Amino acid sequence: MARRGKKKNGLRWSKIYSFACIRPNEVLEDEQASSLGGPGYSRIVHCNQSHLHRQKPLKYPSNYISTTKYNVITFLPKAIFEQFRRVANLYFLLAAGLSLTPISPFSPFSMIAPLAFVVGLSMIKEAVEDWRRFMQDVEVNGRNVSVHKGEGQFEYKQWQKICVGDVVKVEKDQFFPADLLLLSSSFEDGICYVETMNLDGETNLKVKRSLEVTQALEDDASFKDFTATIRCEDPNPNLYTFVGNFEYERQVYALEPNHILLRDSKLRNTTYVYGVIIFTGHDSKVMQNATKSPAKRSRIEKKMDKVIYVLFTILVLISVISSIGFAVITKTKMPNWWYLQPKNDAGLYDPSKPVASGLAHLVTALILYGYLIPISLYVSIEVVKVSQALFINRDVLMYDEETEKPAHARTSNLNEELGQVDTILSDKTGTLTCNQMDFLKCSIAGVPYGVRSSEVEIATEKQMASEASVSEIESAHGTTDIVDRPQKPAIKGFSFEDDRLLHGNWVREPTAGIIRLFFRTLALCHTAIPEPNEETGGFTYEAESPDEGAFLVAAREFGFEFCRRQQSSVFIKEKYSPSGDPVEREFKLLSLLEFNSKRKRMSVIVRDEESGKILLLCKGADSIIFERLSKDGRMYLNETKQHLNEYGESGLRTLALAYKVLDESEYSAWDTEFQRAKTNIGPDREALVEHISDNMEKELILVGATAVEDKLQKGVPQCIDKLAQAGLKIWVLTGDKIETAINIGYACSLLRQGMTQIRLSIENDDLLAQDVNKAAKENILMKLTNASQMIKLEKDPHAAFALIIDGKTLTYALEDDIKNHFLSIAVECASVICCRVSPRQKAMVTRLVKEGTGKVTLAIGDGANDVGMIQEADIGIGISGVEGMQAVMASDFSISQFRFLERLLVVHGHWCYKRIALMICYFFYKNIAFGLTIFYFEAFTGFSGQSVYDDWYMLLFNVVLTSLPVISLGVFEQDVSSEVCLQFPALYQQGAKNLFFDWYRIIGWMFNGLYTSIVIFFLSIGIFYNRIFRAGGQTADMAAVGTTIFTCIIWAVNLQIALIMSHFTWIQHFFVWGSIVSWYLFLVAYGSSSPTLSGNSYKILGEALGPAPIYWLSTLVVAAACNIPYLVHISYQRVSHPLDHHVLQEIKYYRKDVEDENMWKREKVRARQRTKIGLTARVEAKFRQFAGRLSKKEKVPSSPSLSSSTNIQNPQ
Amino acid sequence: MNHANGSAVAGSSSGSGDDLAPRRNSKRPKYSRFTQQELPACKPILTPKWVISVFTLIGVIFVPIGVAALLASNNVVEIVDQYDDKCVPPNMTNDKVAYIQNATFDKTCIRTLQVLKNMSQPIYVYYQLDNFYQNHRRYVKSRNDEQLRKASQANETSGCDPERTANGAPIVPCGLIAWSLFNDTYKFSLDNKNLTVNKKGISWKSDRDHKFGKDVYPKNFQNSSVIGGAKLDPKIPLSEQEDLIVWMRTAALPTFRKLYGKIEQDLKEGDSIIVTLENNYNTYSFSGKKKLVLSTSSWLGGKNDFLGIAYLAIGGLCFFLAVAFTVIYLVKPRKLGDPSYLSWNRNPAGN
């Protein structure tokens, strides 16, 4: 917003902080310098002299980036290569090549045309996708940035034109065009804020700072004569390291990662920065990091490949049979067949060389029976998947109004995999939660305040209410409309509701004094800075973590508005001061004791300028605060503890607040010591500082506790519940602390009361380095053994276990010798939460689950830190709601909200799975049915390789005559409607258990194909054998017989698909019946084309077959005979072993769900998988508790830090 | 990650969202029943009623057709006479091939056919060959349709190997099929009166009109060293050489009949027909049978019990299935849409 030109707001951050920032820029030490210039560290950048980099030897790549797979020249060879990596395509290519030789049974055209069609279509798809990538690159390369062109003048240039050594000026909210060295910023001390969401997925801003020597370069003109040299490392993918030095004015300074601004991160809250470019284009760290996303293939497709190998085997087998038959016949019989002139130029039919003839015939046969291999299967699947993906993209119910983003299937390869997921691995921040904290409740002086419930409580209550009343009918759309709150909080970060504290009413509370102290602590104990908001007239706060922001907003709402920060003072507007009028009070900030993850607390020491009192205000994790209370500070301890427990169980983040009054002398004595420690330069400085801080934060007096809701994304608990009901396992992998993760576990109902928590974490890191590994491993192994013992001994069917493990432990648990042990326990647990895991570990865990269980894993996340996991999982899903696109770019599907996962999996996944499974089975059936008839006919032709069908029939069989119905099956089939899918998530298990594409089914379909081929061929031959087929006395020639058989095939396979379908819209009707009609239309058209083209099929339908009743009668009897067994099979299956979707179809068909609502409702409840997680399980557990209240009490685990403290800091 | 003093905007920064308001919903997918997969659809399910009625219906349709087909087939009268062995003089039976290949022998052969049932005209005369692979790939391909159609394309002999040229000139009609043209001839007489055999109209009209040219005359035919089958009159255009046209329609199976002519005269039961045939065609090399067939036709064509039996069998099977399913539904009734068959109700232990 309008902060340009308002340079410097007078704050020097480095001075506010106690110790974290005091690190003088040291002049480079010798040993670091020596490593530069060596291998891997050879880069030299001449700042502001980019012309030196436009030519050798210092010419570095331009800033042009290209993420396309192909370019104009490489497209054809590369794309063709890709296409022919598929075995089937390669086979068809060979066949097409051989069709040019005389050994081919078909004309070259009939072999090449389908192949060209199939390959061409796939290549067009590739080209379109690559074109999109190219356009994206063009957009990025064409962005403008202000570059120093000399003489202190800056001008805008396109990103692709800038060059190493250029000085650029990047303005607020712009992306950095390349990796820069920060020279100076609009802040006096050369800092700037950077959003690195695209790099690591973290939403909080990072501070970068320039070298002190360059801070003076603060306007355009000062770059006129600026020169310097950077020697640094070569391009590499490490985002968090940088080694280099900076030679400026004959001094050498060391560079750190903190001086570097990386491409794809964004300048925030800083008006502008100047920087010099070090790495451009593909040299930049983010581009170096870009891994090619692995090409994923679904399980069904992999299995399909196996089936294709089976078909190949059959193909080879019958080809060998054919060629042996051919050789034998050629040798023994053909010399007698004078009408073939066997002695005359016999070529391939030379009776004297039967082996050679046989071998040549093998090739012929391989081509001839190629119809066993469905050439159009791949292309049909592509078409189907793209259409399915379109449906996913266009689903209104997966469109998010807030972010204006629909769901997007970025790759269509994995649609059916969505229906087979077994384990979901989810990120937390940004995926399950919004990374927005709402101040919800507090406990002050042992009194709980805040009447509003947390989301999980509301959801639980609703669920309980609906369980209790049978008449209530759940909305068909699942989760979306239950989640609306009564009213949305008007203020972001604040959903507190309690009239006792609001509107100044707290003044009338009996403990008003303590309440005032509580609010002041909220308003003072932080490191945020206020920023006036011109629109509302209030302030927005730049805080380092969202909960801190929430505290400030809360304090403001309670009447303690933090309004100004000066170098050493904090100003607060108090609305309800004792005098009654709003006053601005100044607090002198004496010291600030920083937060870190070890201390788990932060404190400020302030002097109230009015009263002169010195106060230490402290907030921190409850366990830490509680052990630091003074004897008389424990007045409210028990009540507070109880409240904290309640808050913890409803998934809230809690912090305890405490204070202590200091007198002047006490403080100054401590301060001298503290200052000394701070300025001490030496290895033990930090330990010393910590020790002294520790001394101060003792003998505290408890004030109360806060409960902040880490706001879940909309509908998350309900969605998790449904997914759990669908039988999915949910793992949460988060970079957060264990306590936060557990809070969220509760909030999402992944954890609940009554669950046994198995925690794996290693506390002791004091051991000697070499022992650490061994000891830790043994420790973990022991814990794992104990846990598995415990799980084994558990008899209670309702018992549930949760596994909570932290990153450090995970590094050991993922080692080869333990990982299977770990996995076997994790699989037993109802929920698994991994905290403090690095992006790499996320990927490793994903791989472990994927490979260890062999089941389909789905990873969902929103940030760049999830990229590894998203790429590793069988299916990667990116949350597209936020700005960073890294996760989305790496993902296979993107959705804007976690809750859409339910519809994506339970509806689209289920459908797509069934569609593709049925479709592939049908394809095999159809091609076997057709292909084998060719083989049977061979036996009647002396295995000579003659086909009974016209080339054109064969050509059209796969491409036109039978392709559209199967595509319509693949695109439109629905076993049950989407409502039923959502109401009965249990149906999802049909996919997860792979009921429709197991070998039993595949082989069943193959046998159906075999049966059909036998019936079609032998019935037709029986009817036409040696007979007069017309009243006019004519006998049938090969064209008539072939056309009749082919007609039977068209009818049989199209009737078959009509029997498979259970959902007929006009489209299916049109395609199925239209295919049959189109066959006759084709015959008419073909028959009336020139006889040169149609040969013996000239006027076949109109003259020869059409008037013959026997032609029509044979079609009828053959088509019926082919399909009766299948009809019997499905009829009988429905009678005796109906599958779930059969019964549901029947219920819907007879409208029983409308007539007997109770039954429908009851079944919905029963259908739930016996889940141990999710809202339903939570509610059931509650009911059990009410009902039984048996001796279960002791089984409830003592979860010591159930109500743990929250961070006021991001994970380090 | 190491920047402890990072800071994030936690307060309200709602301002940035406002400028997006005008183009709200621009990316919202348009609702249509098609894209939402909510098109009206019929969702037939196999209720017992449907299953039983479908099977019954098939039975009801198929059995009468089967009966009708059998009746039609029974009305057809067929006389088959195998003459390949019988027409070889007894002294030559040991070496039939030598007999047939020797042009000097007289190949005339007299056969008598008994009419066992009244035959009404037209009576079709067929020759039937056995074990003759007209569908062999080498044979099927050995022709050139262009050449047959147009006189101007006489030189077009591609594909006709090995019977393309003779004495350096192209053969019309070229190829093995034409070369091996059947050349037995039949003459019929009843009570010493000749029965005329009409050899016009035995081929498809479209073949005569469009595939065999009216101006294409046999040329250089059967002039090579080995003579295959029949010779053609070079003065008659191909479109009128109907024996050739019929022969060129290659048969699908190694046993086949081809139309020789029509006798347009009724024959009575007890008539005996004298056939004077020229036994020229060599089937002895490959031990193929030769048969002469006289047959009447019905609406269904010739004698064809197979079709009728197939219909009766399948119709009967469907009746049986209809009954069987009725029994199943009666014995083991399952109320449709009975929720107790749902998997979660059947094995409550969960699966």
TrEMBL record, chain A:
GO terms for molecular function: ATP binding; ATP hydrolysis activity; ATPase-coupled intramembrane lipid transporter activity; magnesium ion binding. It is found in: Membrane. ATP binds at D427, K428, T429, E548, F595, K619, R653, T734, G735, D736, R836, K842, N865, D866. It is a multi-pass membrane protein. Mg(2+) binds at D427, T429, D862, D866. Residues 1189-1212 are annotated as: Disordered. CDD domains: P-type_ATPase_APLT_Dnf-like (cd02073). GO terms for cellular component: plasma membrane. The active site is at D427 (4-aspartylphosphate intermediate). Belongs to the cation transport ATPase (P-type) (TC 3.A.3) family. Type IV subfamily. NCBIfam families: ATPase-Plipid (TIGR01652), ATPase_P-type (TIGR01494). This is Phospholipid-transporting ATPase. It comes from Canna indica (Indian-shot). The lineage of its organism: Eukaryota, Viridiplantae, Streptophyta, Embryophyta, Tracheophyta.
UniProtKB/TrEMBL annotation, chain B:
GO terms for cellular component: endoplasmic reticulum; Golgi apparatus; plasma membrane. It is found in: Membrane. The chain crosses the membrane at residues 50-72, 306-331. Signal peptide: none annotated. It is a multi-pass membrane protein. Residues 1-33, 144-164 are annotated as: Disordered. InterPro entries: CDC50/LEM3_fam (IPR005045). Residues 1-17 have a biased composition (Low complexity). Keywords: Membrane, Transmembrane, Transmembrane helix. Its main location: membrane. This is ALA-interacting subunit.
